[in-house]
């Protein structure tokens, strides 16, 4: 979807290609629906009576209107039980509506419903997100994919609170960045190498956003032995991609948000090679880095008044005669030595150097996003990511932003008693434990050693970052989800208040 325009209108001012209404699962029609039904000569009543219109979440019924309404079509979008309606519900309903429209596209009018347990503003935001994320296609690389006519405009029929169209318009701009992050995650690893990711990031530079991509020589000069080792086996060398955002109207407060992303453009596991099944999905092991790049770009586009430094560690974890090996001892940029016990635990290695760099460049509050452990996906599936933090207030801030944004995140613990499982007999730390226990928390304990002084949080998004299959809500497509972009924007908004 290229661009989506949002307007608040009164019914009848323009004829949309479709009028959409949220329809709860309950006996009888609501007030708003009843008025429409009178003009439709009772067709909705009859459909309901015949059991064809039940209001199940994600289900739609489409009617052609023959001039009875000021819209060519009516799409009744089920939202499930009224009392359970939340933002995710409306995202799902909006996604079902665009998918039902199929090739029609054009203008969709939504009649908002003030009897739903969600403010009109929140309804509009969710509908815009559901429309944009629901119409995303990952099939860019098909040669005969017929381009669908996109939904270009959403009209909201409502006695709108002031500013609803404007805030929904900002949501649409963020939505484009979410889909941009999905494009990056879905890009095949032969196309999207660390160098190319750096080039894509550099294309975003503008008056308030500066971008540089440090090359292997510079990475070595900085003493980043961990990032360097992970990237060494590939002919496509590593990059440290650094993006700095300076708000045009100056920042509110002294916070410098440091965003750090894992961007393994392909994770074969290295010498500790992964099994073949689904290894292709490891092109998505850069989803955290993609979210960081798209997230800072979205914040810059919205010109939010907060300073941000983003550091993305990009590398390809392959096998070659020059691979790093189990048994190797690496020296990270902060001086700590790491014994390699599993080359597939590479994410924490590249993040170690990136966290150090973000702190050195002045980040006061750190947040890293990474598809870090398979066990986190086993634990939480495709919906929640897990969060770790070294400070309670920072954890609360992250969780609140995450929940408000739709990028669901659940807290996990850190504790010094876990530290011994990453003790090495030879070096300061080892990068993986030989016990098949607690791998997400051990990874987080490892990262904590590189996060320096001050608040730091880590989000392990291995589950919701890249989907094996449709999630059955508004993320109907396999592949990248853009998880983290909305969270970053929401966090930046809150920190700038
Ligand atoms: N990129 C993987 C984690 C992953 C697995 C993300 C599945 C998404 C889906 C990561 O680099 C990895 O391989 N982690 C290992 C760590 C282990 C060796 C300690 C894992 O989780 O098995
Ligand atoms: Zn790995
Ligand atoms: Zn990985």
CATH structural class of the largest domain: Alpha Beta
Relevant CATH superfamily of the largest domain: Zn peptidases
Name the shape in a single word: elongated
Largest sheet geometry: 8 strands, mixed
| Model regions low in confidence, pLDDT < 50 over at least 5 residues | none
Number of folding domains?
2
Report how far the terminal alpha carbons are from each other.
31 Å
What is the mean predicted local confidence, pLDDT?
A: 97
Structural class computed from helices and strand pairing: alpha/beta
Give the second-level CATH assignment, the architecture of the largest domain: 3-Layer(aba) Sandwich
Distinct ligand kinds: ligand BES, zinc ion
Biggest β-sheet: strands ordered side by side in the sheet: 7-8-10-9-13-17-14-15
Could you tell me the radius of gyration in angstroms? 24 Å
Question: In the CATH scheme, what's the topology name of the largest domain?
Answer: Aminopeptidase
Percent helix, as a range, is 25-40%
Tally of contiguous helical segments: 14
Q: Number of DSSP strands? A: 19
Strand residues, percent: 15-25%
Please tell me about this protein's structure.
The protein is an alpha/beta fold. It has 2 domains: 5-158, Leucine Aminopeptidase, subunit E, domain 1, CATH 3.40.220; 177-495, Aminopeptidase, CATH 3.40.630. It is 33% helix and 21% strand. The protein has helices spanning 31-39, 43-49, 87-101, 120-134, 164-186, 194-202, 216-221, 225-231, 287-302, 347-360, 374-380, 392-405, 439-448, 485-495, and strands at 5-9, 18-23, 60-64, 73-78, 106-111, 151-157, 209-214, 239-245, 256-267, 307-317, 329-331, 337-339, 365-370, 385-389, 409-411, 429-430, 456-460, 466-467, 479-480. The protein has an 8-stranded mixed β-sheet with strand order 7-8-10-9-13-17-14-15, sandwiched between helices. Strands 1-6-5-2-4-3 form a 6-stranded mixed β-sheet, with helices on one face. The protein has a 3-stranded mixed β-sheet with strand order 11-12-16. β5 (106-111), α4 and β6 (151-157) form a beta-alpha-beta unit. α12 (392-405) packs across α14 (485-495). The protein is elongated and about 80 Å long. The relative contact order is 0.12. The model has no long low-confidence stretch (mean pLDDT 97). Bound molecules: ligand BES and zinc ion (2 copies). One zinc ion (ZN) is lined by residues 264, 267, 285, 346-347.
